[in-house]
Every structure is written in C-alpha cells, then in structure tokens.
Amino acid sequence: MGLLSEGSPLSWEETKALADHVREHGVNQFINLYHRLKDRQGDILKWGDEVEYIIVKFDEEQGVARVALRAQDLLAKLNEKELADPKGVKSLWRPEYGAYMIEGTPGKPFGGLMAHFNLVEANMRYRREEVTELLAKDECVMSITNFPRLGAPNFTYPLAQPRPEDPLSSARSLYFPDEAIFPGHPRFKTLTRNIRKRRGEKVSIKLKVFKDTKTKLPVEGAPPGEPDVVLLDAMGFGMGCCCLQLTFQACNITEARRLYDQLAPLCPIMLALTAASPIYRGYLTESDCRWNVISSSVDCRTEEERGLAPLDKQKFRIAKSRYDSIDSYLSPEGAKYNDVPLTYDEAVYKRLVEGGIDHLLAQHVAHLFIRDTVSLFSEKVHQNDKEDTDHFENIQSTNWQTMRFKPPPPNSSIGWRVEFRPCEAQISDFENAAIVCFVVLLTRVILSYQLNFLTPISKVDENMQTAQKRDACRKEKFWFRKSSKTTEQRAAKAQAQAQAQAHAQTNGKATLNGNGLINGNGSENGDQDEQQPLTNGSAKMNGHGNTNGTNGTTNGTTNGTTNGINGSNGSSNGADSDHTDTDDEENELFQLLSINEIFNGKPNVFPGLVPLIRSYLQSMEVDTDTHCTIEQYLRFIQKRAAGELITTATWMREQVLSHPDYKQDSVVSERINYDLLKRIQGIQEGKQVEPALLGQGYHSKTKTKDFIPPALQKQLAKNGCCEEK
Question: Phi, psi at residue 364, to the nearest 5°?
C-alpha cells in the first residue's frame, strides 16, 4: 500500500493547506537523495514478491461465505516472529487496505542464484500455512484478486452496514462499510476520506454488466441513464482488491531506468495473462481485471481537473487517475516513444533541472508532483530535507502506476529498484510462483540480450484497456514491437558464446566457482550444480557486464550472456546504441499480436517471450530440481498464453454460468459465491483438480524447496559469497 508513517493524521483542510509545503520539500528531498546516490554502483540482483490475501469465513450450514474482518488480530500474531527475530524470519506481514486483507512477502529478498527460483513457491506455501495455523476451521486465507460479493448485502463477518448519511463515515458508501477498512493504521481511513473530499464527491466506479438472457435492467443502483452499469462508490472496491507485485534491485540507476522502460510495455500483456476478477458486487461484468476499478477508486481529480468544468481553482487538466499506467519513459532510448503530452508542474520541473536532474527524470518527478498529498501526519510536517524523504515518498507512494521507479531509502544498503505492479493474484501458489519467476527471468533476458520492447505510450495505454476486456487473453490483440535482426543476432551470438563457455574449463576472473554464481568481470562458465546468469562482481545475476567503472564500459557481449549496458559505468543516461531501430522502418516496428504470439512467437515477427527465456536458460547449467521447477512454470505460461489453459477470470465465469443455481441473470448469489470459493479452497490446497485452469496436476510436479541445497551453501561459504548480503 505504500508508505505507512506513524502519527496523528491531519484533517483534509489542514492537509490541503500544506500541499505546497509537502511539494516544495519533497522536491528538495529528491534532489538531495539523487545527488547522494546517483553514482551508486555494483548492487547485486535482489528481488522479491508481494502477495496479498483475503481472509474468508464459511458458514456451511447457511451456504454463505463472507470476508472475515480479522486482519488486525492476525497481523499482531504474525508479526511476533519478526519482532523476536527480524533477520531470521521466513516471511514478513503487513497490513493492507481491507480489514480482511493481509500482505505477505519473503523474510528476505531472493538473490542471484538460479536456485532461488526453486525457493519461491515453497516460501509462498509457508506463508499460506503460517496464516492457516491461526485461523478457525471455518476460515480460509485466499490469494484471490477480488471477493466476488464485495459490497453486496451482508458481505462481512461480523456483519457491518454502510452509513452513507453519517458525516463521520470515511467512505459514505452505499455498499462498503467503514468497518471493512483496516482499523490498525490511520492511513487507510484518512486516504478514503481525503480522496472523497478532494474530489468533491464520492468516487464513481462504473462497470458494464455482463448481459445474459435474463439480466434485469436497470442494474440495482445503476446511475440515471446508464441501466447496464454496476456502480461502485468507495475506495474499498479497488484498494480492497489483491494483487501480485515484484520488486527488483538494479546494479545502478541506469539499469533501473532501463528496466522501468522495458517492462512498462509488458504490463498490459501480463495483466491480460493474469486476469482474475470478473465479478463485482455480486454481478458478472464485462471486465476481467481489477485495474480500472482501482484506478477509479482513488481518482481524487476534481471536475476541473477531469475537464468537466473550466479551470479556475485548479492548475491542471489531468488525463488519468493517480492510479494508472505510466505516462513517460525514463531512459534516453525511450524518449522518442513519449508520444502522449505529459502534464507536469513547470515550477517543480525547473527546480529539478536547476538542481541537476536530467530532463527525463525531472519531467517524471514533476508529473508525479501535479498531485496533492492526500494523507499527512502532524509529526511529519517539518523534516530535514538533507536526510529525510517522507515528503517525497508521500507523493511518490500515492502515485500508483503500473511501474514504480524507487530510489534507495536514506541510510540503507538497499539500491535503486523498480516495482512491477500489474499482475492479478492467482489462486494457487504454483501459479503465483510461475508468474514471479517468469517476470524475473524476463528481466535477466532483457538485460542479457539487450532486448528492446519500447512501444509508444499511446499504444501501451490502448493495450491497458484491451487487457481488461472479457477473455482478452484468448480473443484480443495487442500492440507489440517486432524484433529486429540486430536483436535476433545479438541473442543468438550471446547464447552461442555462453554455451561455448559453459563447456570450457577456465580459471581466474571469469569462472563460475561451482556455486551457481558468476564472479569476476561478468563472464559465465558452466557448473554441474547451479548456474547464475547475468551477474557482475562476485555474486550477482544482473544481466550486465562489469558496470562499476573499473573496467570500462560494457557494450554488448561481455563474455557469455552477460551483455552490458553501454554507458552504465556511472552514467545516469546509459543510451544503448543498439536501440536505433535501423533494421526497421519506424512505422512498421509495431504490430497487433495475440497473447499467444507474444509469449510463444510468430514467425518473422517475434520469437516469443518463452522461447527467449528458454534460449537464455540453455546457456545456464541449472541443478535438476530447479530446472524441473522452472520448466513446469514455463509450460504453464506457454499453455495459458496459447489458450490451452484458461485464465482465472474465464474459469470463474464458467463456474458461475454452469452452476445449477444460476438464473442467467448475471447475479452471483450467496450460494454460488460459497460454492465458487469452496472450489477455490480445494484448488489452493491441492485437493481439487482443475485441468482447464492448471492442467493435470501441474501444481504438484515442481521440486520447490524452502532451502538452498547444502552442497551449494558449502560452496558459497568456501568462495566467500554470502547470500545474506
């Protein structure tokens, strides 16, 4: 959910009066932070996932499932382990927006070992089991994106009723009671109240109902003149959804900016692949994803900012909510694809440029800062801009975009990071782990092969809307960049070199010391146990050559698959000379491709994301168990992309439509909801086989472990490498 500052929340009127104060000092804090850390180099690859969960209570006698408002109680118990042993815990737990939601992450980041891919699913299982131990027999922790009857009558346990006329209510919702908002931190109700007050009215989330043969129109609560709309009117309908997110640490700011840009066009693609939320307020809708729901749920723009009234009290017309897809690229090679006019605060931009920030990064930050703060604590008003970053993070953390560019925290060992935010939560740990490992491997391939996925922002925006359509994964097409001859040649050359080196017995600076890690100058050599792609320094899987400035720049093929980023030896720009598009005419670079073609390839257009990852993995020597696990993940993704397996959203629709109690009226009744969630419980526990969703027993075929093999740990210690660093 972002920054959780401690303290006493200010009223909206007090917060509004301090908006310029927060903006001014937030900009100063970023400038100071940037200059303190812009030349930071050599951070190793670390990465981790965040899975959000919903607690569900089943009433077997009545055939009813409700969200259990137990998050605060559960978190108090879950956090005891962390308080007792902060560095030794296997999981970390944090609050989320809903009083029925919790967020779990690994106890420490995964790192540069190939074997780490074999830990993810086991750690997710551990998290689920850890929560389950604290639940009653009639309760279940579920990694579902949206509770299907959220906002329907009596959807909480204990029962709570909305109070739309109560002036003390934060949401003033017709459907979502304040009791369903997490009560253990003031941020959540404060945001709810202040977003509503800043907007000047309640948020308005409109979804088209799925029209079946007996769908009754107008839908209950539909706005006047919009009879086929399912109306949601509170922040909780969006922020009360769950998602799956990943964060990567880059070796330096250049690599972080490049990853931010290259992953951004993949956000709508991954959103479509992970679609998992077709039901809202107990109605089947025409949407398969949560994205526009959350976007509208925190849309604090006034009528002036939305273009519904002439500008008077406000400075800007703002095209999007503060929760939406990115609006500009950060790397020099991405600049020409910023084809949508960017609204930004010119005074902030000028201050940033004068403060030594380059144009692309300055306009990015100035764009974030067109937003007002919507949550402020009295203890955090006055800060030391040379040391603190809370005012910057106040604005940064309430710009919820598909990608987030994250500077290092002050006084921390953490480096420059990017956060990948579009994916919907999947039912099983197998699915969630498959998505996580796929995206992490893709980042390594992007850096190793210097792939270029840059697509005009306008087309990425179009893809984001396409991704949310019903069954988009099988039926829709998306703008995607054709691969150039240069890219294909570079990938083939890198693979061939890595394979040759994997069979060579070399010593000194460029050896894989039997531990699955690359040390020395970024080259890789095979080993019978584990193999770490893409590392520089002594223990990194970074996908670049040595970028610490001691061995010059790393252009292209730095021995094996560790292809460098030109200019990443301290430069904050890092333009890549291979991203010149000289092999294609500009107007022929992009084609409409299906999800299947993007993931599995289309001849003479694009080799496919999965084949590219497989090509990369061929240059690695991976231990048998990890190889088995990764292969199961890739097969799962390949089959879902091809339509052989269906998305969670499509599966849920089919469950509703085929339920004996369904009346062809688009309504997901309490009984249908109960049976659907019971079936989901069976899937996530491995008791229910759903071949259309997972294939035959895929979730039981991985060799996931909750530890690194002892032989590898011994080798790491022998070579002075420590994964704890």
Answer: -60, -50
